[in-house]
């Protein structure tokens, strides 16, 4: 198990004692991550990020990392590990860079991934910058991914792999990151937490979006973007086949909840093909029309060991969290990432990340701008 | 380099005399309210402790009501006197501890009180004219006045005797939270003229979880805790004889040593201020430069976040505080500094060093050695917004 600076986290005595800031959400992964680095002999300080300016206490059914209970769990874990612990108030940054971005992306007809944005802007920008200024060498998190010589790789636990949501990090960000869990399965992490006496050992995994406590994304968006009736148009016939209360409520590839009130021309199910926020129009069509082969990504990040591919290279691409992996040819040109898929993909939504892999190694990423 | 504990205003180590007095009782059986021999023995411990505390603080034994600490005593004084007086206006200084402010605001939210914060000047002082003017807006409707003896954050000492006299001109009861003052300043209950005074065990070298409300005759708050009526029917709950014994021993020693403590701590404290200024020339000392707690040094470090300073100092073995309350561990700008007219950014860049009976010159040397580097680091990290 290694990280970017080359020392072995699992070793009895590190080659150099690093000052490490461990981001502790209150969950089992980040607690074990912090414990492992501390045990490896590094100087570890735990920090819980307060991401909500109005943390509810003991919300039933609340998930994620924003509650007072989560802060207490993180503090308790830090006490058991025996490291100092602080809470950093990142609520304003989080609201601006993640929550508002989430809402405005939906308003623009895209489908954002807030976890990806949080890693990019909060954990490995706001927190990392502050940590470096305060004399820390690195930020450690409980993400399931590996860093080998500064290169991001998938976790050995394929089902829990989080390299996709870290794929936006730059080489510079990765150079100051430590992911101590990438060589372990989730089951191993839980067993280790129990062995270490961490009370979060059997705390349920967090799901969904941490700032939407009840998991109702549509209601969350409706509250912020309002409701406005608009047409659902069938691309095959050009006819209006239903209406909706706001185009932002849809995602490319969505089939359920379309409220189409008449039989389709070919009698087959309809899927969302496109979302047009200005005219508030949702276009639907048959599954075959969803298939894309060409993807254009904006804000490309080239973070693997290879040089930037100004000529096409063969690699694979993942187009959403826990999504399928496609063979492709990728090329950087004009500040964009152009991806030609070997086989067509469906449900490719602008706003999601396209993360490129060479085997299990992340080589680059971009935000999907369009697909055809 | 060892640890420099400079957070005595938060809690101070127990005095050996208090540990001895308390541990002597821990193995004994007996509820002070029981009538048998074991009960009588425990009762004697409690009553001797009551007499000790009364003697040390210039009160009568019957004026001492034991509580489970300062917060309970503040709650009893403010809620209890409000309910007993059946008047609406509650005048509290804007720089009170949350243990006094929050009960007042709770009364406003739930029981029809009108809370009127008494403004302070830029040094944190409540001016007698401010209190007089506030009372005179409608004297007949004032339930009580509460102004702390000395401020827990910035250390400013209030003109308690003058303020209490003004309240008394109108027959209004006056409460003071004196948890920071006892042991650092001369504190006399009867002589000060206050009607109710909060004292805490662990702030004076006694155990945590015990305190007292001193109540003059005629000040009869409505109980907050109902039950067996153990303390003059004003406060219920089995008396914690061991803790009370430790509390009394601590009060006695702290009050006896007060003049020497004050002199020694203010010398150390002035040295600390001088050397922090030398290391960080643009540092600002908050609070009254003259009338302040001998052990208190409270600074604002421009361009720094208090939390960052605290973390860096902790890593260097210096234990201090931002002095303000936290919610979920997230620092809010101090209401005390805001009331003193500071802006939120400066308020968030503040630190309190508080000295106590175990403080030494080595502690001051320790701070002087690391503070320059720490402030430089914190400035690099900037203000967290």
Automatic annotation (TrEMBL), chain A:
Start and end residues of each tRNA-specific 2-thiouridylase MnmA-like C-terminal domain: 293-368
Binding site for ATP: 23-30, 49, 142
Catalysed reactions listed for this entry: S-sulfanyl-L-cysteinyl-[protein] + uridine(34) in tRNA + AH2 + ATP = 2-thiouridine(34) in tRNA + L-cysteinyl-[protein] + A + AMP + diphosphate + H(+)
Source taxon at top rank: Bacteria
CDD domains for this protein: MnmA_TRMU-like
GO-annotated molecular function: ATP binding; tRNA binding; tRNA-uridine 2-sulfurtransferase activity
Function field: Catalyzes the 2-thiolation of uridine at the wobble position (U34) of tRNA, leading to the formation of s(2)U34.
Protein name listed in UniProt: tRNA-specific 2-thiouridylase MnmA
Taxonomic lineage: Bacteria, Bacillati, Actinomycetota, Actinomycetes, Streptosporangiales
TrEMBL record, chain B:
MF (Gene Ontology): cysteine desulfurase activity; iron-sulfur cluster binding; metal ion binding
Pfam families hit by this protein: Aminotran_5
Enzyme type, top EC level: transferase
Gene3D superfamilies given in the database record: 1.10.260.50, Aspartate Aminotransferase, domain 1, Type I PLP-dependent aspartate aminotransferase-like (Major domain)
Keywords: Iron, Iron-sulfur, Metal-binding, Pyridoxal phosphate, Transferase
Domain Aminotransferase class V, first and last residues per copy: 5-366
EC code: 2.8.1.7
InterPro entries referenced in this protein's UniProt entry, alphabetically: Aminotrans_V_dom, Aminotrans_V_PyrdxlP_BS, Cysteine_dSase, PyrdxlP-dep_Trfase, PyrdxlP-dep_Trfase_major, PyrdxlP-dep_Trfase_small
Cofactor: pyridoxal 5'-phosphate
Keyword Metal-binding listed: yes
Catalyses which reaction(s): (sulfur carrier)-H + L-cysteine = (sulfur carrier)-SH + L-alanine
Record-stated family: Belongs to the class-V pyridoxal-phosphate-dependent aminotransferase family. NifS/IscS subfamily.
PANTHER family xrefs: CYSTEINE DESULFURASE (PTHR11601:SF34), CYSTEINE DESULFURYLASE FAMILY MEMBER (PTHR11601)
Record protein name field: cysteine desulfurase
Biological source species: Sphaerimonospora thailandensis
